[in-house]
Amino acid sequence: MYRWFCPKGGKVLDPFSGGSVRGIVAEYLGYSYTGIDLRQEQVTENAEQAQLLYEKGAIDRSPGWIQGDSRQIGDLAAHVEADFVFSCLSYADLGVYSDAPADISNMDYADFLTAYREIIIQAFRDGEVEIKTVDDLKKLIEIDIALQKDEIGF
Q1: Less crowded by CB within 10 Å, the N or C end of the chain?
Q2: What does CATH list as the number for 9-89+103-152?
């Protein structure tokens, strides 16, 4: 995903970071990563995991995580001029992430969609928005596999 949609060495902003994987992979691939998570314990755990990998030399720098409500992404990540906004969709009506009152996964579906849209709009401050769907990604993966097969002679 990062290599397909973010310029080399670009900045990634993740409004629903959850665990550490997306941040660590971004940094491993040479991208600058800032993730936002509602729960401080998750942010702390992510930073600890990344620090271990940094100390082992697996990544050159540690991803950045911010604890906060992504509905305030404009303030929380004001310092980030992202080239790519990437995240897993928050839980919506599939489950509840936390019991925090600010957690949008606690909202009914209509309110959730409104909050989610507002977060994404704030994340794209410059007004340039490109949305990729699962079908778009499936096509890109099929093309990438075909190109790789050609390169190795399949």
Answers
A1: C
A2: 3.40.50.150
